[in-house]
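Methods: holo model generation. Sequences were used as deposited, without trimming of termini or removal of tags, and paired with ligand SMILES retrieved from the corresponding compound records. Each pair was processed once, and we did not select among multiple samples. The sequence and pyridoxal-5'-phosphate SMILES for this entry were:
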Amino acid sequence: MQKDPKNLNTTLELSKEDMRAYGYKVIDHIVAHFDTQNDKKPVTQASRAEMDDLLTEDIPLFPSQPDDVLDFVMRDIIPNSNIVSHPKSYSFVPGPSNYVSVMADTIATGFNIFSGGWAASPAAAELEIVTMNWLLEIFGFPTKQGGGIFTSGGSMANLTALVTARRIKCKEDFSKAVIYLSDQAHSSNIKAIKVIGFKKEQIRIIPTDLEFKISLNKLKNAIAKDRLEGLQPFCIIASAGTTNTGTVDPLDAIATICEEESLWMHVDGAYGGAAILSASGKQTLKGIERADSLTVDPHKWFFQPYEMGCLLVKNHNWLSGTFSEKPEYLRDIEGNESEINFYDHGIQLTRRFRALKFYMSLKTFGLEAFKTAITYNIDLANSVEKILRKSAFWEVVSPATLGIINFRYHPLGHNLTEKELDHINQNISRQVVDSGEALLVTTVLLGQVVLRMCLINPRTQLKDITDTLALCEKFGEKEIEKLSNNV
Ligand SMILES: *Cc1c(COP(=O)(O)O)cnc(C)c1O
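and the model returned the structure below.
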C-alpha cells in the first residue's frame, strides 16, 4: 500500500495505457478459463473460517498496485467458487454461459448504459423490446399486445408476475384472495407470495401425483371449497419444468380451469421454458401459450451469464398499469406512449442493459444453434435414462424430463432397506462432491434420497456422465461393503 495522501487517485482513473494493459490481462484470464474449465474440478468447498483467514481485512484507506489487486483476486477469490458451466456440474440448475454474452455484459458495463428509461438510452430500450418480441414469438404470446421485462432472475420475475396478477385480479383489497401452487413449485414463488403480504392461510399447496404433476382433482376441490367459504381464488402458479424432476404441470387443463374460474395463470418456466426450442419440449410444454404471465430464465437454459431472468405477459399494459409511478423528478423524460420506460414495467428504476447479451449471443450463434443445443440436452438425458435402466446397479426414480433425471444406487442381489439405500446414496453424493470430480447432489422424492442430474450444458458429453456413474459405482460398492462388515 502507498500511504502518501498526495498520491491519491481522486478521480479514480487509470491512464489509457494502464486501462488497456489491465483489460487485456482480465480478458486473458477469462479466455484461459473458458479454454481450461473442462479440465478443472468443478467443485470447491471452503469453510467460513478458511475464507475469513483468506479474505478478512481492514478497509483499505490507501491505494495498492492495480496488478496486485487483480492478481490476488485471480489467485485467491475466483478459484474458490464452483464452476457452474463445467460439463460435470450436474446439480441445481447449472449455468452454461457463453463467451459472446460475457463480452456483451462487459460492453454494457463498460459504457454503463442506464436501461431504465427511453430518454437515457433509446436503443437499449428498443433492444429490450426487440428481444422481448423474439421471446414472445418463441412462446406463442402475442407480440403487439404482449410485453415483458428482463429481471435479475426467475425469483424477481415471479415476484413481478404476482404483484401484477394481484393488482389485475384483486385491485386494492386482497384480504380474501387465495393462490394455488403445487408442492413441487419452486420456493421463490412462496417467497414472492410472502414478500407481497399474503398470509399463510391464503396459500394452497396442492399435492402432486406420482409423476409430480399438480393433482387437477385436488386443485379443483380446493378452488371450489374456497369459493364456498367466501374467499377469492385469484391465481394458479403452474410449473413448466419443476426444479426437482423437470415435470411440467398439465398446462392446457390448468389454462381451462383459469378461464372458467377467471383466475390468473402464471407459469414458472424459469429453467424448463427454454425446452420449447426442441420438438419434444414443445410437445411437453403445450398450453404454455395460454398463460397470462410466464417466467423464463435466460441465465439457465438460454446460456446467458448471470443475472438475467425474464417475465413475459399477454398484455404489456398490465405491467405499466401496475408499476407506473409519476414522481416529479422523472417528469421531463416521460416521452410518448410507444417509447417504453422499463422502470414503468417492473420494480427497478436503475437497470443494467441485460438485453444486450441475449441479443448479441443470439445474433452471433443463431436460434438454430440454441435449438440444436437444447435438443441435444434433452436427448442426452434420455440416453442416460436408457443406460441406467440397463444397469444392475441403478434404479430410475423419475424418468428423464426436460434434461433432468433422478436415480439411485440400488444394486441387484442385495436386500437393502429404504434407510440403507438413503444412507448409501447420500454417501455416494458426499464422496463424489468431496472428490471435486463432479457436482452431484441429492434431492428427496417421495421420501427417498436420490441423485439428481440437470443436463442443460451442451458441452456435457455422455462420456462425462458414464465416468461420473463409474465413480459413483465405486463409492457405492464400498458403502455396501461397509454395511456387510457391520452385520
Ligand atoms: C431457478 C428457478 C427459479 C429461481 O430463479 P433465479 O434466477 O434463481 O432467481 C424459479 N423457478 C424455477 C422453476 C427455477 O428453476
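The chain has a mean pLDDT of 96.
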